[in-house]
Amino acid sequence: MKAGQTFHQPPQRPGRDGELSSDFNYEDRITLPKQVSAAVFDVDRTILSNSEDLYTHLLGRTMHELSSSTLGDVELTLLARRIFDSTYPFTDTLKATAGWCRAHGGSVSDDDFNFTYWRAVDSYRKSVDGRSFTLEPVPGASALIKHLHESTNRKLAVYSAAPRRLASMALDVVGISHLFSAQVFNEDLPSGTSKFETIGWQRALSLLGGRNGPIVGFEDRAEGAVGLLAAGFDTVLVVPSLPATEFFQRVERYTPHLTSTSRAILLKRLHFVRSWESVHPS
Q1: Contact 23, 111 (CB under 8 A)
Q2: Which of 70, 181, 234, 263 is 20 to 30 Å from 7 at the Cα level?
Q3: How many CB atoms lie within 10 A of CB 281?
Q4: How many CB atoms lie within 10 A of CB 84?
Q5: Cα distance between residue 116 and residue 228, in whole Å
Q6: How confident is the prediction for the chain on average, in pLDDT?
Q7: At 87, which helix (H) or strand (E)?
Q8: CA 89, 269, 194 angle in degrees (round to 5)?
């Protein structure tokens, strides 16, 4: 879901002594709970810093191929990103970009556009050498995932609102897809499911065998963090991709049923770090 709602008083994260703080209160070092039994990660901007840029890079290339636009590659990629950021789910993004092509001289159906886009995705996945775009993990993500893969006896999952063909492709390209025993994506859930709801996180956890001890979730956005907290994860770690004010406004937006006190108690399980390099084994 997109931002856009204004609040008179944004919520604030509890400080260490119970009072409220208006910033993220970054922790320079945080130790994982002992004997973590399972962990679930978001993908885009949590594991991979620029995977959404790849998705829109390939959209821009498809728009160039199927329209008569004279815009250059950079301009088309920026336009594709604006469409991507303003549409959800991704099927709507594809429809919107196909419509843009038709409005700019392209004689292309939605199905034709989809076929050409997914062909570009598959081509990127297979082209080991000479890729036009380099995917980059968030600092510390790969090492943390490998540690949890071993320490949890492979009880590691991802849950992404992106389509499977995109997010799994990105994980595969950077060589870590095999470390996740369970993978849940947009099309695995009822239409309209949002990440601040519990269903996706609970699905991922159930595929790992459920709770057998402390469970940890990893996110970058307020929507997913709220979903993890509501799903009962003991610890939720966040490398935020939004400014603090917007992040906490979204927390309030997705928890309208909570009082300020209840929300503050809930957020005590939320921890902010600048990168995953700040997270260490117990």
Answers
A1: no
A2: 234
A3: 12
A4: 18
A5: 36
A6: 90
A7: none
A8: 10
Of 79, 87, 90, 88, the C-alpha closest to 57 is 79
The residue assigned the tokens 């050409």 is 116
Asked if the model's pLDDT at residue 5 lies above 60, the reply is no
In 3D space, the residue among 202, 201, 206 whose CA is nearest the CA of residue 218 turns out to be 201
Cα 274 to Cα 28, 77, 220, 229, distances in angstroms:
8, 28, 10, 20
Q: What is the dihedral of CA 191, 195, 196, 201, to 10 degrees?
A: 100
3-state SS assignment for residue 13: strand
Contact indicator for 41, 145 with CB cutoff of 8 Å: yes
Cα-to-chain-centroid distance, residue 28: 23
- Residue whose tokens read 């601040």: 196
Write out pLDDT tens, residues 29-70. 999 998 999 999 999 999 999 999 999 999 999 999 999 999
Planar angle of CA 53, 10, 44, nearest 5 degrees = 20
Say if CB 204 and CB 180 are below 8 A apart.
no
| DSSP track, 92-158 | HHHHHHHHHHHHTT----HHHHHHHHHHHHHHHHH--SS-SS---BPTTHHHHHHHHHHHTTT-EEE
Lookup: tokens for 10: 């944004």
